[in-house]
């Protein structure tokens, strides 16, 4: 198991508002693997994101379904604040930016 495998799995989680995956949106700040535990540091576009709980839940479930990982810890942070500059070029083009 490595960070790239986790990132690939997370790229299948789509933000319902923006219709872009959470990796390309830049919501994933860090992936830390330690034995069978994965800690994901992530954020949401806004504190009032109506899909925040759902995205966090899907993130945890997706990672815990990967071979070799039995526990996923989500560290939801607000610093640094998410900005559109965190989005990949692909995401910005998809949104017409």
UniProtKB/TrEMBL annotation:
Superkingdom, taxonomy of origin: Bacteria
Q: Where is the MIP18 family-like domain?
A: 4-70
Q: Which parts of the chain are coiled coil?
A: none
| SUPFAM superfamilies registered for this protein in UniProt | Fe-S cluster assembly (FSCA) domain-like
Q: What is this protein called?
A: Metal-sulfur cluster assembly factor
């Amino acid at each position: 198991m490595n960070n790239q495998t986790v990132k690939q799995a997370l790229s299948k989680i789509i933000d319902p508002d923006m219709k872009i995956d959470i990796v390309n949106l830049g919501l994933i700040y860090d992936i830390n693997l330690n034995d069978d535990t994965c800690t994901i540091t992530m954020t949401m576009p806004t504190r009032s994101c109506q899909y925040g709980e759902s995205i966090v839940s899907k993130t945890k479930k997706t990672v815990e379904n990967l071979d070799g990982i039995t526990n996923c810890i989500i560290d939801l942070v607000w610093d640094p604040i998410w900005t559109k500059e965190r989005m990949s070029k692909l995401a910005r083009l998809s949104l017409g930016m």
